[in-house]
Design a protein that fits this description.
Layout lengths: L1 H17 L14 E5 L4 E5 L2 E6 L6 E2 H5 L2 E2 L4 E8 L4 E5 L11 E2 L4 E6 L6 E3 L7 E4 L4 E8 L6 E6 L5 E3 L4 E4 L8 E9 L3 E10 L10 E9 L1
Parallel strand pairs: 10-12, 11-18
Antiparallel strand pairs: 1-2, 1-5, 3-9, 4-8, 6-7, 6-9, 12-16, 13-17, 14-16, 15-16, 17-18
């Protein structure tokens, strides 16, 4: 069974090579993600498909660390670098690191970042607090909660069994308007990684107020089958 899963992961990685031909964004295409490169790289916009990027990370940076700098979390399906000495592509897949052979990168490496934005299987809002959510392994779930970080408050994960439900990256905040001090929405994304059940608890508080109850609490029970 394990060999079968590894073979499927290898085939999925190999399929990414054929997508390299569509790396360039089509006319009028909208960026769907971005990567924050260390100086002097800055922020690079990323499009659906495979994007050719010159990295500015220090030599020996893990591929996993590179993927974690891409927003939104979970957008990277694979990363590729052509190895001229072997006349082939080396690849890294966040979903199948055990089948990957591009484990580290160096400064000025040219890589292909293959981006695909998956729609969440479930999207929860504050009105869903107290409910039970059923997911299948591999499903994703977004939790969208209102808040205003200019007040010092932010939403954070307080309880979660990461062996069942994994948080993908840090929450994103989008203000409702362009006005200074505007409130908006925090979006958390989670992925179901194994069968089981977990309580997911998010709290809205000022992180430095350690002995003060949270302003708001959001809880749901997540069952993964």
């Amino acid at each position: 069974m394990k060999k079968t899963l590894l073979m499927a992961a290898v085939l999925a990685l190999a399929a990414g090579v054929s997508a390299l031909a569509i790396a360039g964004p089509r006319a009028g295409a909208q960026a769907v993600a971005s990567i924050a490169l260390p100086d002097p790289g800055g922020v690079e916009q990323l499009f659906e498909g495979c994007n050719n990027i010159a990295l500015t990370f220090p030599d020996g940076t893990t591929s996993e660390a590179v993927v974690q700098t891409v927003t939104p979390a979970g957008a990277v399906q694979s990363m590729w670098r052509y190895d001229a000495s072997q006349s082939r592509f080396l690849g890294f897949s966040p979903g199948a690191p055990q089948a990957s052979d591009l484990l580290t990168v160096n400064r000025l490496d040219a890589v292909w970042l293959c981006i695909s934005i998956r729609e969440a299987t479930a999207v929860l809002h504050e009105g869903d607090a107290g409910s039970t959510v059923e997911l299948g392994v591999g499903d994703t779930m977004d939790v969208v909660l209102e808040g205003n970080p200019t007040t010092g408050f932010s939403w954070e994960t307080a309880a979660l069994d990461a062996s069942v439900l994994k948080q993908l990256g840090e929450p994103e905040f989008k203000p409702d308007t362009s006005l200074i001090g505007a409130g908006g929405k925090f979006t958390f994304r989670f992925e179901a990684v194994a069968p089981g059940q977990t309580l997911l608890q998010l709290v809205y508080h000022r992180p430095w107020e350690t002995n003060v109850p949270p302003e708001k609490t959001f809880e749901v029970t997540v069952t993964v089958q």
